[in-house]
Amino acid sequence: MSKTYTGSCLCGSVTFEAAGLSDIWYCHCKQCQKLTGLYISAAGAPRENIKITGDVNWLPISEMSESGHCPKCGAYMFWSMHDRPNMSVLTGCLDDSSGLEVKGHIYVEEKAAHYEITDGLPQFEGYPEQGTRST
Ligand SMILES: [Zn+2]
Ligand SMILES: [Zn+2]
Fold this sequence. Notes:
Blueprint: E1 4-8, E2 15-19, E3 22-27, H1 30-36, E4 40-46, E5 50-53, E6 57-60, E7 65-69, E8 76-81, E9 86-90, E10 102-106
Parallel strand pairs: 3-10
Antiparallel strand pairs: 1-2, 2-5, 3-4, 4-9, 6-7, 7-8, 8-9
């Protein structure tokens, strides 16, 4: 019953369809900062629900995770942790994100110093499953 979202990179070489996306999280970890310049907005779905068309350049972030980019325009599109059934889509790549709900902020303990989080959404030091709410 869930909506299927479509998306693409900036140049359109990589497109995708994602069914059952949920739970947008803003991740403030250092890895996301280094990759994008600030924090990321990502929504997860089971790997098999995300159908990608076009070549994705998968780059290692750490031993546990990798990021998926368009090889032509460099857009950061996907985030995947090897041992998790879910994969994340960077919501900026979605054609239309309406219907998705933002759950909160994760890895706020690694947040850069030059901005404050002022939207009142829940904040977690790490991952919400194991992390402790900091506010
Ligand atoms: Zn592209
Ligand atoms: Zn992050």
